[in-house]
Amino acid sequence: MITIAIANQKGGVGKTTLARNLAFHSIERGLRTLCVDLDPQKNFTKTLLAQRAQHAELSLPTDAMSASQLFQPVVSGADSGVRPLACGGNAALIAADRELVDVAALPLEALTLPRKWLESLAGAFDLCLIDTAPTLGNPLYAALIAADYVLCPCTVDQDATDGLADLFEDIARVQQLGWNTELKLLGVLANCVNTRRVYDQVGLQSLREGLGELLIDSVLYERAATKVAKDRPVWRSQRGESHARAAQEMKAVCDQIFRRTALQGV
Ligand SMILES: Nc1ncnc2c1ncn2[C@@H]1O[C@H](COP(=O)(O)OP(=O)(O)OP(=O)(O)O)[C@@H](O)[C@H]1O
Ligand SMILES: [Mg+2]
Hints:
Layout: E1 2-6, H1 15-28, E2 33-37, H2 43-53, E3 85-86, E4 91-94, H3 108-111, H4 113-121, E5 127-131, H5 138-146, E6 149-155, H6 158-176, E7 184-191, H7 198-211, H8 224-228, H9 240-261
Parallel strand pairs: 1-5, 1-6, 2-4, 2-5, 6-7
Antiparallel strand pairs: 3-4
Helix pairs in contact: 1-2, 1-9, 4-5
The structure holds adenosine-5'-triphosphate and magnesium ion.
């Protein structure tokens, strides 16, 4: 299982948008996809629950684990009685819950527990996507400790790009303090770029110069079709030229991210 954390402490930069489209991309490729929502806002959770609602055959869950349980000690495999919530086909969810807000106060030892839980589930999944909350510190550390890769969507306004330095500092801390020496920065994705706004073009150019290869070549432009597609991939139900462009751009981004992680469909 490859685990990708999608992170940026700045709010509204496209973490969940990217998480949900990567999840759909992975599901469509036949990969067994585990979606973990570490954000108590529950946006990623809602997307997966909508997916689950389309599968009437799924029985009511009695033992599905929620994300705050990832911070409790691991109980061994089959006896644990807790598992991700099946969402149809090859997708499953560890849903965000209100108790996640308490993670901020947990000691370091507890922040390594989600990694142990996910390791115990690794045999059942090919890809694990972790959506994170807009915050630095403990909740982010837990995701970075659990992940193989961290992917950082970012808008091109100055406040957001300035914030990347703090994010990179936290990533480096996790690597250098030995909390997760294998963690790799998959890249930064420029999101919500307005094709007609000069400010955005200048911002995108300076991101390119500053980040070099760390910036993912494909860009997500600001598109109404991307905004409204909360419960389905952007590339479903295309209407009109703008929607088709949004679909194409999102597909290109997902393909490129998969290539960077050497993920293959089955
Ligand atoms: N490329 C885009 N074009 C248009 N709207 C977008 C685009 N990307 C994201 N949005 C919209 O911007 C808003 C914020 O996006 P999203 O929820 O993905 O950000 P986030 O980083 O997960 O936010 P938070 O930090 O609150 O979790 C959403 O309404 C989303 O639909
Ligand atoms: Mg979000």
